[in-house]
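Chapter summary example.
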Amino acid sequence: MTVRKQAESRGGRPRDSRVDEAVASAVRELLVEVGYARLTMDQVAARAGVGKAAIYRRHATKQEMIFEVAAQGQFLAEPPARGSLRADLAAVLAEITGSMASAPPGALPGLLADIHADPGLLARFVTQYRGAQIQTLTEILDAAIARGELTSRPDAAILNAVLVGPVFAWLYLLSESSDQLPVLTSALLDAALALVTTTGGPGADAQVG
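The structure predicted for these 209 residues follows.
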C-alpha cells in the first residue's frame, strides 16, 4: 500500500509527495555536509523549503526521519536473477558494498545505534529492513534449489550475517579502505558458497518449506 493510499484509508488528507521528496533530498544532502550527529530537523526544514510542522506530521523524530529516507534505498530489496547461485550471491555482495561504501561517513553507525535504543524503531528495522534482506536471500536459495544446485535451504539469516556483517565491520569498525572491498567480497563469496553448499548441497536432507 502506498503512502497516499495509507493516508486515504485512514480518512486523512493525502500527503504531498513533493514534500516527501524535498525532505528526503534535504536529508541526504545534509548527511553528507554536516553528518548524522549534527543534522537537525530545523536544517532539513530550511533546506527542503517546508515548515517543521510538515516534517513532524511525517516523522516523530530525527532518527525516524533518517531511517525512512535510508529505507527507501535499502539494499537486497529485490533478488537478482543471474542464473546461478554464485552469480546471484556476487550480485548481492556488489549491492551491499555499493550501498555501504556510498553512505555518508558515520551515518550508518549512528543510525543503527539510535535504532537499537528505540524499541519501536528497532521493530520496524527488523521487519522492514532486515526482514526484507532475509526474504530476498530466501528467494535466491529457493531458486538455487529449483535449479538443482542445493537440495535444502540453509538458514537465510545466517547467510545474511555472513554477507553483511564483514562489510560493515571492514568499513565502520576497522576503518579499512573501501578500495580493498573487492578482495574482501571475493573471500566472502567463497565463504558464503562454502556455507550454503555444506548445509544445503548434495547429500543434505531436503528441508524446503
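To summarize the output: The chain has two domains: 3-61, 73-200.
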